[in-house]
Amino acid sequence: MIIHSFTNDYSEGCHPSILQALTESNLIQQSGYGDDAYTLSAIRSIRNKIGDDNAEVHLISGGTLTNLLVLASILKPFESVIAAQTGHISTHETGAIEATGHKIEEVFTSDGKLTPELIKPVLNKFPEYHTVKPRVVYISNSTEIGTIYNKKELTDLSEFCKENDLILFMDGARLPSALTAASNDLTLADVAHLTDVFYIGGTKSGALLGEAVVITNDTLKKDFKYHQKQRGAMMAKGRAIGIQFDQLLKDDLIFKLAAHANTLATKIRNTVEELGYSFLTESDSNQIFPILPNKVIDKLILKYGFYIWEPVDADNSAIRMVTSWATPEDKVNLFINDLKEISKLW
Amino acid sequence: MIIHSFTNDYSEGCHPSILQALTESNLIQQSGYGDDAYTLSAIRSIRNKIGDDNAEVHLISGGTLTNLLVLASILKPFESVIAAQTGHISTHETGAIEATGHKIEEVFTSDGKLTPELIKPVLNKFPEYHTVKPRVVYISNSTEIGTIYNKKELTDLSEFCKENDLILFMDGARLPSALTAASNDLTLADVAHLTDVFYIGGTKSGALLGEAVVITNDTLKKDFKYHQKQRGAMMAKGRAIGIQFDQLLKDDLIFKLAAHANTLATKIRNTVEELGYSFLTESDSNQIFPILPNKVIDKLILKYGFYIWEPVDADNSAIRMVTSWATPEDKVNLFINDLKEISKLW
Amino acid sequence: MIIHSFTNDYSEGCHPSILQALTESNLIQQSGYGDDAYTLSAIRSIRNKIGDDNAEVHLISGGTLTNLLVLASILKPFESVIAAQTGHISTHETGAIEATGHKIEEVFTSDGKLTPELIKPVLNKFPEYHTVKPRVVYISNSTEIGTIYNKKELTDLSEFCKENDLILFMDGARLPSALTAASNDLTLADVAHLTDVFYIGGTKSGALLGEAVVITNDTLKKDFKYHQKQRGAMMAKGRAIGIQFDQLLKDDLIFKLAAHANTLATKIRNTVEELGYSFLTESDSNQIFPILPNKVIDKLILKYGFYIWEPVDADNSAIRMVTSWATPEDKVNLFINDLKEISKLW
Amino acid sequence: MIIHSFTNDYSEGCHPSILQALTESNLIQQSGYGDDAYTLSAIRSIRNKIGDDNAEVHLISGGTLTNLLVLASILKPFESVIAAQTGHISTHETGAIEATGHKIEEVFTSDGKLTPELIKPVLNKFPEYHTVKPRVVYISNSTEIGTIYNKKELTDLSEFCKENDLILFMDGARLPSALTAASNDLTLADVAHLTDVFYIGGTKSGALLGEAVVITNDTLKKDFKYHQKQRGAMMAKGRAIGIQFDQLLKDDLIFKLAAHANTLATKIRNTVEELGYSFLTESDSNQIFPILPNKVIDKLILKYGFYIWEPVDADNSAIRMVTSWATPEDKVNLFINDLKEISKLW
């Protein structure tokens, strides 16, 4: 019997205020395809929050669809995107980007983050015409392994991209978690200012579905809706996502929910540390990767859901634990107690 | 001040039972990516309804995404899809099918429906290798102009496709309306039996979003989920569509809602006929195309929403009126009265 | 025993001066990928001939590869190309253009030529974002059915395209034949001036292989070589095409060869007319489409190669006869005599 | 003044016997698109040589076009190709494979060759549906850095591929050089038997252009010509390549020419060794990568053409030298003498 699953941050439905808003607005007739009042209100909220009245905002149903749509809208046929080898587009989107015709140039990085130093060698191409031309740098914040960019790192990357005529695109499927992590010093406005295009993940932050793409670079705005419709990313009832973001953005609800998830992940992390265990990656976001003895894991997994990420040595493995807006603190407490008890056995 | 919009069938939210089910299930943890209990229940309902336990069922967020996904999963690079010139993929999907690399061979047909006779000339290709190879026949039921296929027509088409090694794919964005039209003699099981793959539209039939793809041809089933993930069509919270179809399929709710829409469209149609007006197309589904004097249209449009479809002559135009599960009968009555009053003026 | 084949204009090798030039230059070391001296000389010849020192010229191995390369280099994902239903890209390239992701919007035209009037309806799209956006107009000169554009027609088309922000692209696989037809009033410089990009066909005009793409519109020049390499259209030994165009452009050899082909086609055409037969299309280029009694065709085909194009009525069919730079006049004379003799029989 | 260029193996034209054959056959009328007598004769020669009467053979104009065509014809949208990080498709084809929609999974290998051990980790994918599915293993023989596969290595790879349902595709742009290298123990028949599809490079082995694709796996044969036409890889005058392979295959001319190139490369290699220099890679094919002092390189490059491949340390760099069927022995002797003289200076 599983007490609680920490397998991912999309096991539950959505924040109750969204269900209430869906119910209240249900029979009000609205325009389709993203021209409804709720979507427009959500767009205004984002523009206010980042202080950019000209930002283009589009609401898309999911992360892979968003990634392929944004990249296909930017890249010419011979242009490539640079990404970490751990990047979601590199590993877990079934070749979605290549299916739009574009090469991902994968860069090895141990912490899931890109730096100018890591990107430079990729730009050094030869001979002309015979290689792809790097055009976009794709980063995730938080990354797929829980780490986050600080302001200095993102600023360096942003400047490097500008100097090298590269577009900086941030996959923000877990951006609310990143921006509410204890060590974070970035604001949403910083992100908007330092990237050319980014998105705020709704699916993993309290919505049923939906990612809000924000385009701040003027050259990328034109005709985006054509791309959106072509890739099947323009929903007839755009309101279904619009209402959700409209709610999540009220009173910073989306960030409060992310902070809740982070707090609980940190609680687990602290216990893991106290017990003398280490981590695969340094994370204060909602994904942590404790390295535990296999014997401990074997016991825990009878009562809690989580991924066994990878073996570290003969006796220990890294696991992935994820908390969310919906994770109950009492379940975290149960887990912590069980972890302590089991650890005492050896 | 607009009294009511008959512009389309996606102006409202969803049937209240869906909101209730979303609320009740909200905090129950479920697997992601379509492996949740609600999706599995919805799949069972569809299999029961069509009497095919081996049918593959996948829930997709919207119609264009479904069309491009299904066709990209079937067609080899040099194969084409045959469609009516009025087909949704031919006209209103921003080249989504071509963007997956495939030619649509468009056939002119006045009633939006394909027949073996219309398809035959397309198969007559020459010389070998220099032309695309037709592989799929795409039809819509109801069509984009409100007409529906009867059992004889669909059977003829089905047999012709089998004889010519063609896959028959039905876009069922408005299938519930077609199957509940007064003149319909097809069952859902017939549709499943006579096509190789089809879908049941949720978005236009009472859901917030979602189309249920049903694959009955064994050769098309393998690896569909790879295609689904690659095209961005696999939602993390698959439950968000699963719950909706699970509700809509209970007690044939989806068909009851469609019948409601058809009844109201028929009520308007009868009035139009009584007043001596004609129609652009013959339709007893939820989309009708009355031809009205421009003078009448100019008055009506001040109070009701609808599309002015196309001019018919100097003084008359066809309009498109669409009813839905959410259309209130009293608003239809108001419209009918207004139409009668205005028509008296001349 | 077939005396001579008039089936197409690519049945023989190449003009002997090309073989001589290949032999003389054979062991001279040259740069690869189109940077050899012969290619550069050919480019200079074309630039001189059209009076445009800034024209970009690229040599490509064949027509389909050229068409897909040029269009893929111009079109954004959601943009389309408008072409005649008889256009080579529409019918005989196995979906090559769609395979690059783009829709061809086919326009019906009885003489294979496009006009502003034929294009206008295609531009009238609605609603925004839901349809492809026409961007290129593709024409062939001579067309696939032997007709040619005159200066007035091409000028009208050119102006219309400029007014509507459309790129005009001429497939010139048989351009030398068009420009040397008796009724032609266009120069190569006119073609360069009135289009944005066009090509001069080598394969059908005396070369073993090769088409010379000429880009005069500045906005289309950048990065073309990236597209060229990506599509497999940049030959390591670019000299192999360079030498051929270098020879064909000396003393207008390519046009003299085309004039020879036209003269012989006209000779056949005149006989057909004298004998009281008609034609499927009006052509004074090197492709003619006589309509002959099936009884005559049955006799002729025992001695001569040609396509039976299509039945015209129960007793008569159109055939396609093609002459080339290599067609011997004595074989044409034999054909003419045989046609006269056979026609006398009935 | 450059005495001779060793920059690549495509600086000259073609073997004189090809020019003679082109001349002799020039006015003989032949069918187009690869159905000519010369192509058919070349196909028979290859089938005889590999002892497989059912092998499908197609002649393509160049290497990149061949690679993208073969891979696009095999791979389903979600399938990937595994290649060495140094593979031509990985580095020097401007994203040609990705432009057909497929991911290349690049494997690091120091000698340019793949082994089962290197491939195994790529096959270990998780979770299902979320990653591409590896389907083809692409290898080059000789590799891009001059190394070759021996029979044991190719057999191991072949067996591994069969066990894992992977297609083995050999890029043979320099296959004749590989098969005539001193250390080679593979025959052309071995290659045909151990791979599913491979090609024999003509461009770098004495032809003006052309690669001969040989498909031995029955499941890959069907409809190849449709793919060929669609990618612009079916030449109207197929004879232009057919004649060349027909000549090159007579009396094993292509292998004699390759042996000539290898002998001269070995002569240079021996001198480099005698002088105490080392190499970047171990090669007895026609590409060698000596590591020379920069001071020596600076002198040599005034008289000979070659690539400076990469710096090895502050004072030394690897260069790439390539010999070909056309390399004159006396130029090699001059180079050797100069290398000896220059090396004495320090």
From TrEMBL, chains A, B, C, D:
Gene Ontology terms for molecular function: lyase activity
GO biological process, one term: amino acid metabolic process
InterPro entries: ArAA_b-elim_lyase/Thr_aldolase, PyrdxlP-dep_Trfase, PyrdxlP-dep_Trfase_major, PyrdxlP-dep_Trfase_small
Entry keywords, A to Z: Pyridoxal phosphate
Record's keyword annotation contains Cell inner membrane: no
Membrane-spanning parts: none
Cofactor or coenzyme needed: pyridoxal 5'-phosphate
Domain Aromatic amino acid beta-eliminating lyase/threonine aldolase: start-end pairs: 31-289
Family: Belongs to the threonine aldolase family.
PANTHER family noted in UniProt: L-THREONINE ALDOLASE-RELATED, LOW SPECIFICITY L-THREONINE ALDOLASE
Protein name, entry field: L-threonine aldolase
Species of origin: Dysgonomonas alginatilytica
